[in-house]
Amino acid sequence: MNSHGPDKEPSADYLRRLVERLEAMRIAEYLELLEKPRRLVMTNFVAGVARGLGFAIGTTIVFAVVIEVLRRLILINIPVISDYLVDIIRLIEMRK
Q: How far is CA 52 from CA 17, 20, 28, 55, in A?
C-alpha cells in the first residue's frame, strides 16, 4: 500500500490522506461512544424504541389499507370473492 520502506518516514501527503479517511469514517466519534457505555446503551435503547414504534405504526397503516380494500371489494359484490371476504372481515371485527 505504501511505497516507502521500513526505515523511511511516511510522506506528508500520505498522512494527510490517512487523516482524511479516518475523519470520514468518524473513528473519533465511535471511540468516544465506546468510552461512555451509558451513552452507548441509551443510544441503542432509543434507536430500538424508534424502530419498534415505526414498525407498529407501519403495520397498522398497512393492515388498515388492506381492510379498506377488502371492504371495497365487497361493495363491488363479486359473488365468490364477496362471501369469502365477508367471512374474513367478520372474523377481524370480532377480534376488535
A: 40, 36, 29, 5
pLDDT score recorded for residue 61: 97
pTM above the 0.70 mark?
A: no
Flag whether 64 is in a domain. yes
- 1 inside domain: no
pLDDT at 56 over 90: yes
Question: What are the helix (H) ranges across the chain?
Answer: 12-25, 27-35, 37-76, 79-95
Tally of domains within the chain: 1
Residues 24, 16: Cα–Cα separation, whole Å: 12
